[in-house]
TrEMBL record:
Pathway: Cell wall biogenesis; peptidoglycan biosynthesis. Residues 352-398 form the Peptidase S11 D-Ala-D-Ala carboxypeptidase A C-terminal domain. Its EC number is 3.4.16.4. Keywords: Carboxypeptidase, Cell shape, Cell wall biogenesis/degradation, Hydrolase, Peptidoglycan synthesis, Protease, Signal. The keyword S-adenosyl-L-methionine does not apply. It is an enzyme of class 3 (hydrolase). This is serine-type D-Ala-D-Ala carboxypeptidase. Belongs to the peptidase S11 family.
Amino acid sequence: MMKRLAGRSGMFLLLLILEITLLFTAPVIVTAENAAEDTSDSEMRPSELYARYAVLMDAETGRILFSKSGDTEAPMASTTKIMTCILALENGTLTDKVSVSSEAASQPEVSLGMKEGQSFYLKDLLYSLMLESHNDTAVAIAEHIGGSVSEFANMMNTKAEELGCMSTYFITPNGLDAEDENGIHHTTAQDLARMMKYCITESPAKEQFLEITRTGSYTFSDCDGNGSYACTNHNAFLKMMDGALTGKTGFTADAGYCYVGALQNDDRTFIVALLACGWPNNKGYKWSDTRKLMTYGLENYFYRDIGSSYDPYNAELTVDVENGYTGSFPDSKNADINVSAQGSPVRVLLKQNEEIESEVQLIENISAPIKAGAQIGEITYSVNGNRIAVYPLCAEETALERTFKICLDYVVSLVLL
């Protein structure tokens, strides 16, 4: 009886070994499918705005939510001063004494009325710069921080390039219309919004920037205690909408009325940038456009999470591991293992009917052995072609190499059982 069983077991063992030697593999990639709830929402049309160039930006990610020729270059007038202010805050000290040169004192209106030879504390001049938009103040600050207006302009252009504002060119620190051998003083609505994003969310001086630009009124004297200078904030948007955070106006003959501002509602922060938004007597156009764009953002964009802890498509990502073995019967099929994205979720402002696209890229020729936790690819999430987040894809389990010994051991274990 024992011999008969042994003979049958031997035959069974030989057949299994023969089948195992003929196994082959074919890698398969499975990616998440895109799906989104189709819900109607109001659309903003460019024709509804007075501004020739405008954008609405999500301040957290920098994604442009709406654009009207937002990448077109145009003069930006005194919205320039947000860059002047942030560079002064980052490179100067509020207690610095700023001397007034003849060039600074000779700047046209709007001006503080400073005289050559006077000195002011940098802190006081920053309120003059941002609340009243004084042109002489901007030059005095530029000369103090950069050594000269031209050197400060170089600092401005360098910072713009660092921020990815590749369609911006600064000549003056105050935004007065200017032109040199490289072109005119200009930016785009998109670049202007990006600069504001930096000022309020990224700069080490962001809290000081917000404190200055949100102040309603401010008075000061020069360093010797002479004179009394009063500044009133001309950013009407601060009292126009709940959550208004900051902003800067501007106007020149070439630029027209310009504005850049930010609003915070709950955990959402929006930035609006407007260029060429009317000329006299249309001073109120910029406020109308700002309200319209901010309202559009508030009514239509809400946060959704993207990342390893949230799968918007309820899809599983699996891969076949060539010649892999995970503990089950080592037959002709490859080993299937689950993979998952690793990293913290990213919040994205989206419309309800807006799709999140995902693209999975795996390394070529995924073959055993694969250890749990090993990165075998990445998943990229994007919206309307704009990349939002990239996560590494890692194996959730180990796949050993399916060797002859593993197959033999598996068969022997069956026989012994």
